[in-house]
Amino acid sequence: MPAKPILVASDVHLGAISRTQERAFLGWLAHCADAASALILNGDLFDFWFEYRSVIPRGYTRVLGILADLADGGLPVTLMGGNHDWWGGAYFREELGVEFLTDPVVRTLAGRATFLAHGDGLGRGDAGYRLLRLILRGRATRWAFRWLHPDIGARVARNVSQTVERWGTPTEAERKRSRVLEAWARTKLAEEPALDLVLLGHTHLPLLCEVGDARWYVNTGDWVHHRSYLTLREGAPPRLEEWSG
Length: 245
Description:
By secondary structure, the protein is α/β, with parallel strands linked by helices. It has one domain (6-242): Metallo-dependent phosphatases (Purple Acid Phosphatase, chain A, domain 2, 4-Layer Sandwich), CATH 3.60.21.10. It has 7 helices and 11 strands. The strands form 2 sheets. The chain has a 6-stranded mixed beta sheet with strand order 4-3-2-1-10-11. The chain has a 5-stranded mixed beta sheet with strand order 5-6-7-9-8, with helices on one face. It is globular and about 50 Å long.
């Protein structure tokens, strides 16, 4: 029997997607328990997450329970913070047993040297967001936000989030961001020959491109428009799939 693959998904935006999509994603997570050797959730699992000292945001009970069960069962689970849920930390690590990352990393995944990042702030044309990100992720901002009542913080986040507006056909702005990240990834692979794979999310548009000889750029898409995920198996090309249940 071949080794089980690594499974990767991103941009689920729990809390802002339809009940149908949420149930499908929970089914996919349960499937990972037997089907995967490791699970990577590459940013924006939640439409909003902020780690309070003694409060857990409402609406995520089922997914948090499944993640804890997966980790308790021995499946390595990695969660990359995205632009909607970067403010995680000790709760995931200590309570759920999930590895939580806040910055891009280079890892060997299924035998490939892989640059793993959510994708926000990369490429051209995102200068304004990069400045805003520095402010939002700053220690002073996080300290101040923590003192807001959680209900007020969640309302602020809902007003800022544009996920509900993205339930329809992907916009031209999203397609443009997809093209920008693809160009950035191709340059990254050209400049760093030791890399085999650049793996991003953020654009909500699934994309798999072979760049040169057995080197790849993959964007895992989303669970807002799609139910897309990536299968990484050693000795085989990366494969984008769509969950049908």
